[in-house]
Design goal:
Its EC number is 2.4.2.2. By secondary structure, the chain is an alpha/beta fold. It has 16 helices and 13 strands. The strands form four sheets. Strands 1-4-5-13 form a four-stranded mixed beta sheet, with helices on both faces. Strands 6-9-11-7 form a four-stranded antiparallel beta sheet, sandwiched between helices. A three-stranded antiparallel beta sheet has the order 10-8-12. Helix 10 links the parallel strand 4 and strand 5. Bound molecules: uracil and calcium ion.
Length: 432
């Protein structure tokens, strides 16, 4: 087989066979096929697309390029949740204990990564003593015993994706649904999930800016999952404004604690219930989505979800007393209110720019080497649609530096107050 022939075949709009796709991904992973040929192929895929079969084959070829996590020693259906990423997305911190409280195994491998705030692990490390450096054995034992554990990313998972993503980044071939969908799904499948619930975000703070693009990506990922034997479904949700009120690591832990008791921000609670009920249903713990939602609400209200969170923290070395005493979480030195300049209605809070404002405070990493300040971030006091009077606080900055003029400038540029607001939809669609 010659790579040049396969590039020509895709360039001409033909379908690559399973063997051809395996040949390409194996050859690329082993450095036998050079970057320039894979760049040309990626561009051909960008223009000619891939069939559902090709996408599933590409996903599995990427999965097989490295290690995979074997969760078969864990009893029950392992359901994983994946978000395509947004600002102030506290859903994982809520859903993991919430679903585990219903005896559904949550075996989560999580990363730190770049972004407006840290990843799930960074957020959890705002809890004194909490750590994810546990052995694979401890991880599996904890999930079997208490249904929940989080372990840091280890092993050589999907090396082909790492190479391919870096190459796409510099060859203008990131924005291909076939390539994005197989990239994301390969990582979930390599991490061992039996079933996958996807939260595909849309809007300013999301990778997919329009609802149509988000739907197309959701359909592509659901189809790949189902074609490779992993029950998969997706929720398409709004990320035009930040989710919930907290953007920042310790602040989001506090927000998760509130939400686990049914006292969280309404949008965050609604999305957690929408994702959670799909997880419960895919885990075969409920016979309908309605029943699944009732079960989730029950453990929020009877304290079981919060107890599960405490158990999880204790199991991984953390101080669970923060749950009842959130003031023990890292606190920023300065709380700075940002008042509205005029009367009106909050018409827009541009999610990604507000996320950058939180990053400027130190809540997220700009580069892999950056240190995160777990205490800092932003607490919204108003959301889109809320009426506001001049002088009233729009949000509170939690900062460890006194001068935050750069952050305040960014905030004023990205919160628009008008005479009315277009109603925002939180959940656009469910794709199964
Ligand atoms: N996120 C991924 O993991 N892969 C892509 O290709 C795009 C976004
Ligand atoms: Ca939030």
């Amino acid at each position: 087989m010659r790579m040049v022939d396969l590039i020509a075949k895709k360039r001409d709009g033909k379908e690559l066979t399973t063997e051809e796709i395996n040949f390409i991904i194996e050859g690329y992973t082993n450095d036998e096929i050079p970057d320039y040929q894979v760049s040309a192929l990626a561009m051909a895929i960008f223009f000619q697309d891939m069939t559902e079969r090709e996408r599933a084959d590409l996903t599995m070829a990427i999965v097989n390029s490295g290690d995979t996590i074997d969760l078969s020693a864990i009893e029950g259906v392992k359901v994983d949740k994946h978000s395509t990423g947004g600002v102030g997305d506290t859903t994982t911190l809520v859903l993991a204990p919430l679903v585990a409280a219903l005896d559904i195994p949550v075996a989560k491998m999580s990363g730190r990564g770049l972004g407006h705030t840290g990843g799930t692990i960074d957020k959890l490390e705002a809890i004194e003593g909490f750590h994810v450096e546990i052995t694979k054995e401890e991880f599996i034992n904890l999930v079997n015993k208490d249904k929940i554990a989080v372990i840091g990313q280890s092993g050589n998972l999907t090396p082909a994706d790492k190479k391919l993503y870096a190459l796409r980044d510099v060859t203008a071939t990131v924005d291909s649904i076939a390539l994005i969908a197989s990239s994301i799904m390969s990582k979930k499948i390599a991490a061992g999930a039996d079933a996958i619930v996807l939260d595909v975000k849309t809007g300013a703070g999301a990778f997919m800016k329009t609802v149509d693009d988000a739907k197309e990506l959701a359909h592509a990922m659901v189809s790949i999952g189902n074609n490779v034997g992993r029950k998969t479904m997706a929720v398409i949700s709004d990320m035009s404004q930040p989710l919930g009120l907290a953007i920042g690591n310790a602040l989001e832990v506090k927000e998760a604690i509130d939400t686990l008791q049914g006292k969280g921000p309404k949008d965050l609670e609604e999305l957690c219930l929408a994702l959670g009920r799909q997880m419960v249903f895919l885990a075969n713990k409920a016979s309908s989505l309605e029943e699944a939602e009732e079960m989730l609400k029950e453990v929020m209200l009877n304290g079981k979800a919060l107890d599960k969170f405490k158990e999880f923290i204790t199991n991984q070395g953390g101080d669970a007393s923060v749950v009842d005493h959130p003031e023990k979480l890292p606190q920023a030195k300065y709380l700075i209110e940002v008042p509205a300049k005029v009367n009106g209605v909050v018409a827009e809070i541009v999610a990604d720019e507000i996320g950058i404002a939180a990053m400027l405070l130190g809540a997220g990493r700009a580069t892999k080497e950056s240190e995160i300040d777990l205490a800092v971030g932003i607490m919204l006091n108003k959301k889109v649609g809320d009426p506001v009077k001049a002088g009233e606080s729009l949000l509170t900055i939690h900062s460890n530096r006194e001068n935050v003029n750069d952050v305040i400038t960014k905030i004023y540029e990205n919160i628009r107050i008008g005479d009315h607001a277009e109603p925002l939809v939180l959940i656009y669609d469910i794709v199964t």
